[in-house]
Amino acid sequence: xxxxxxxxxxxxxxxxxxxxxxxxxxxxxxxxxxxxxxxxxxxxxxxxxxxxxxxxxxxxxxxxxxxxxxxxxxxxxxxxxxxxxxxxxxxxxxxxxxxxxxxxxxxxxxxxxxxxx
Length: 117
Prior knowledge:
By secondary structure, the chain is an all-alpha fold. The chain has helices at about 10-25, 30-45, 50-60, 60-80, 85-115.
């Protein structure tokens, strides 16, 4: 891309932090998932599992957060293109929502496997 600035670790870190702040400020589902992350992390620590198993549980909770960030990017890009109802726009947004849903499914499977092992 021609308009891409040169790589700068400090600037890129600031862009990432700005993105996180904006998503936190404007996406209620991200806030809910962040709350779930903290609450379930606390639960994971009180389950009395080994350090490795607890780490697996806590790290798995990052997956829905990452997927929600990607979903927010998809939704914003679609809204940039059109705010009118469009079947392809709906399918793109639905695919993003499916990604988040699948992330929670994967987390549930990981938790069931780790706790039952």
